[in-house]
Structures are given as structure tokens and as C-alpha cells.
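Researcher: I've been going back and forth with a colleague about how Ubiquinone biosynthesis monooxygenase COQ6, mitochondrial might be arranged in three dimensions. Neither of us has a model we trust, so I'd like an independent prediction. The organism is Smittium mucronatum, in case that matters for your notes. Sequence below.
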Amino acid sequence: MNKTFTKVSFRRAVQKRFYSDSPSDSFTSNYDIVIVGGGIAGSTLANALGSSNVFKDKKVALIDPAPLNKISQWNPPMDRFENRTVQITGANQKYLSSIGIWDHLYKERVQPYSHVIVTDQTSQAKLEFDNRSLLISENHSPAYLVENSNLLSACLKSVSKNFSESKNIDIYQDSKVVSISDNRNSPSDNDWPLLHLSNGKSLKARLLVGTDGINSLVRKYANIDTNGWDYNQFGNVANLCFDKYNTTAYQRFLPSGPIAVLPLPNGFANLVWSMDSQISQKLKLVSDKNFIKFVNLAFRLHNHSDFMYLLNLLNPDGSVPDHVNFDQECLWRLNKTSFDQNSSLDLSESLSNSTMYPPQVIEISPNSRQSFPLRLRIADKFYSNRVALVGDAAHTMHPLAGQGLNTGISDVISLSNILKDAVLSGSDIGSTEYVLAKYNSERYWSNAALQGSIDKLWRLFRSQNPIVSNFRRMGMDLIDHFPSFKNQIIKSTML
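Model: Here is an independent structure prediction for Ubiquinone biosynthesis monooxygenase COQ6, mitochondrial. You can compare it with whatever you and your colleague have in mind.
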């Protein structure tokens, strides 16, 4: 890559060795709260508990099969960003700051942004959110883009700080939960879940929290079913570099799925491109050089049929046939005129000739292209006897709105506040009736409503029906001409 961070001095946090390899013995340990899953949601919950004096006398365990100590000491690459990023809303940024996580980020790798341009290929409608008027201070923005590893490392560093004095947390790294069963050793705790770890250790939990992802073992133990469907689409991500500095987020709705480029510092950007499975499979075979062209074209071509024509020109292995001048084919469709062999305008100049679309992508970080299947899932309920589900263990949604992790953080906020009230009132934190049912009431319908809205939005923008297309154009134009309405949308979803 041409752009590097050689002039940036990254801080290297001094790490205490707070992760202990769990002893391999046959004794069973009792915990008030056991969190299964040390990812962002699980470690954020651990920080929420650790940053509050209310839980200082509660014993907590965090379990994950990954080497969390190594992850906490993440050493970021100097010349590029990672391809997996998360959008953090302004409201959740303030919350992460309040529990100590934000202080441990590599701030120079975090990109705040307040300008978003959304376009629709079929109707050619445009919707622009310029939310700089909503900035609360220089340190607060409606949205932030953060690398997954940066945020997870900060979460784990904060866990170390929050629990360094109280010593009331045990972190079981490199430890897989082999099975979970009901403990029936004595009448006093016979309904506490009993966890058996791969190192031979057994844990009993007054409250078991599953933050262990879409294939949650905790959810299976609680016998909670899920509903939903596969989109028959893949999310494709990559780390890109623009030809100029940019702090605007761009999203375009294509009939085959939305494409977005989200700004990162120093002219870098994160690509999130949802597309039908057949298109994804073919683009996987395309060289980085031609993949960059398809990204630029996806934002600029007026007709999806032109995009598909160019894609179908390629050989089955993704290469360009010898008899095809691919740049000429692209340029002709951009200009919608016969290509002039004597024209001085080349493809690069044509791609840069626009203010409605993102700057031209000129590079892609090596080996940064990845894809993953897109699904919608929601658990029948977010709780069972002494069990609570948080984040992807409870719900997943299409990434077009960038709300997946934000809903998980909202789960953490809700559950930690309800647990705090339970402790202060002397209630059993694992009580189904007085604690967990309240959490389910707060979070289930909120998540279900957001999932439904995003799914309907995805279906609305896939349609190429002229009537639906005109409806989209009128709706986007109406919103775009009322700044107060646009600002209210941002305030309700981000601030």
C-alpha cells in the first residue's frame, strides 16, 4: 500500500497478566454470573459489571476458547486496516466511554463521521445526511467506524483494569465449554446450570449469560429455538484505499444487494458489499485489479444490466478473455456512448468525474477480501431458567444498516441495568419472573422490530418494478428535502 502509519506513534498499553490458565482439577466452582463468549458483547458485559460498585461482591467468570491474553495485546498493522469493522452509534460510544472501554482504543485508527450519502441505482434517487450540526462536541459524533480487533482488544484491556483490584473475575481463556447440564447436587442450588470445560474444570452459575454467537451452546442448553431465514446472499468485505482523503460514508442500493464504503483514517475505507450468492462466487475469482473496477462501477453505472454484462464477460476462472478490452467496455457503459478511440479520457478519469459517488478506489489491501453468509435469526425468547441470551446468540440481522453490534451493546446495557436493580433490591439475579422476564420484555420486541424494518428495507430496494422504483424515489426525495426530519432519524437511531 502507498499509505502507511509510519508517522503515527501507536501507544502500547502495559498489560498485566490477568488471564490465568484454568487449573485442571475436578472441583466445581460457584459463580454468580458466568459469561460464555469473550467476544465484544461478552467482554462489554464483563466491563459493565466490573465498572459498577454494585457488583463488587459478585463473583464473575468469562469463558472463551480463544487466547484472550494474546488478543488483548493486539499489535495493529502499520500500513493498513483490518477488513472487519463495526459501526458504533454515538449513543453506544458514550456508553463504552462510561464503562472505560473507549479509553483503551487506538484512537488514531478510529474514524468518526457525520456525513452519509445514500443512492438507489434503479430510481437514481439520492438521500444525503449531513449531520455535522448534530455534533455534541469535538469528541462526539453520530457514528464511529472501528476495527473489530481494535475494539475487542480495548474491551479486554478494560476488563483487566476494572477487575485488577477487586479480583472478583476469573477469565478462562483457551477453555471450551464441552457441555452444560442441570446441577442437582443439593436442594439449595439444584436449578443452577453446571458447565463442564475442556480443561476438566466445572462451574456452577447462578446466572448463565450466552454471548457465544449464532450457534450458541447456551441457547441449545436452554432449549430455545430460533426463527428466521437465509438471504441467499453473502456479505463481502475488504480494506480499500481511495485516491484522496474522505470522511463521508457512501451506500448504494443495487438490485442484487447494497454496497457501502465506510471511511477510515488516512484515505482508507472499509467495503461492505452484500450480493447474491452467484455474483459473490464469481467475484471471488476476480483479480484484485478487476475487483477494484467492479467496486467503482457498482457505485456509478446507471443500469444493473450493464454491471452483469461486464461480469459475464469474464472467463469462468475470473480472468478477462484475450479478445476483450475490459477498460473500453467499462468506459462505454459509463458514458453510454460509442467509445471514441481518439478520446483522451481514460477509465480512471471517468470514474473520478463525480461528486455524488465515493472517491475512486485505487488499491485493495492484499488478502483482505472475505465473505460470509447473510442470515436473519431471532430466538423465540431471550431467556430461560437462569439463562439470558445477548447479541448474536439472541438475534442476527442483515448488515445493510450496520446495527448488528449496536443491538448487542443495547442488550448489555439493558441486562446490566436490570441486574443492578436486582442486586440493590436483594433479588435473585437468576430469577426468571423478576429479572430475566423483564430483560426479555425490554429487548425482544425492540430487536424484532428493528430486524423487521431492515428486512423490509432490503426487500423494498431489491425490486426493479417501475411502480416500486417511483415510490422509492418519491420517498427519498421527500426525506431529503426536510432537514429536520433527517436529523430526527439520526437522533433516534444514533444519538
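Researcher: What would you highlight for our discussion?
Model: I'd start with this: Residues 432-462 form the longest helix (31 residues). After that, consider the following. Residues 4-25, 337-345 have pLDDT under 50 and may be disordered.
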